[in-house]
Amino acid sequence: MINVMIYNEFVHELKDEKVKAVYPDGIHSVIKSFLEKDSSIGKIRCAVLEDHRQTLSKEALDDTDVLVWWGHMRHQEVDDEAVARVCRRVLDGMGLVVLHSGHASKPFKALMGTDTHLLRWREAGEKVRLWNIAKNHPITRGLSETFTIPHDETYGEPFGIPNPDELIFLSWFQGGEVFRSGCTWRRGEGKVFYFQSGHETFPIYYQNEVQLVITNAVKWACPVERHCVADRGKGNTPALEQIRN
To answer: Domain segments of the chain: what residues?
Structure first.
C-alpha cells in the first residue's frame, strides 16, 4: 500500500469566495477523495500552510511514499527546515508530484536547481488541449491520445525547468501558447513529476482525466520497494549535495 501526503496552502479557499465555491473543503480534500478510491493507496494525510511545520515532520515524511504538492500565494512562507526535510526524502527515494503553480514552490525549485518561475502566464480561462506524447508510460495509462480541459489558467513557454528526463504531456492553449505540461525527473533515488493543470478557480480536479493522471503519477513515483508501478532506472541527476546536507 502507498502512503501519501498531500500539501495544499489552503489559503485561496478561505479568502476567496469564488474558489471556496469550487473547493469548499480545500483542493487537498478533493485530491484525497479520489486517491482513496484506488485500492493500492493506503494512508493519506494532508498538510496545509498553517500546520505544515508539524505535519511535514521528519517522522511523517519518513512514513510517506509520495508527496503531492499544491501551492500558489504563499510559497515564501513555507519553512526552510521543512523544505530541507522534503528534499532529503526525495533524494532518499520519496516520490514528489508537483501540481500547477507548485512550479514556484521551494521544494521544486531546490530540486530542479533552476528558475522554475520563468514562464508566460495569463488568467484567461481558456480551453487547453493536452497531448499525450508518452502513450506507453505508466502516468498515461488509461488515457487517450488527447483530452481537453474547458477552462484553465494559460501557461506558455519558455519554462525555466531543466530538460525533463521524460516529456509526458504537451499542452496547446486557446490563445496559441504551448507548454511542457507534464514532465518527469529523477533526483537521487526519488522521482519527480510536474503536472501543470489545476487553477484554483476552475473545477479541474473533478475531471476524470486529471484524476487519472494524478493517481497514475502517485503510483509511478512510489519507491519500487513499495511494489508500485515504477522504473528504477536512473535519469539526469545534478549535484545536490547542498540539499542533502
So the answer is: 2-115+180-244
All residues at 6 or more sequence positions from 215 whose CB lies less than 8 Å from its CB, including other chains: 34, 35, 38, 41
Q: Which residue has the cell 476567496?
A: 16
Q: C-alpha cell of 193?
A: 513529476
Query: What does CATH list as the number for 2-115+180-244?
Result: 3.40.50.880
DSSP state of 162: P
DSSP for 173-212?
A: ETTS-EEEEEEEEEETTEEEEEE----TTS-GGGSHHHHH
Angle at 26 between CA 101 and CA 160, to 5 degrees: 5
| pTM for this model (two decimals) | 0.91
Which residue type sits at 159?
F
Tens digit of pLDDT for each residue in 208-229? Answer: 999 999 999 999 999 976 545 4
**Quick check: helix, strand or coil at residue 228?**
coil
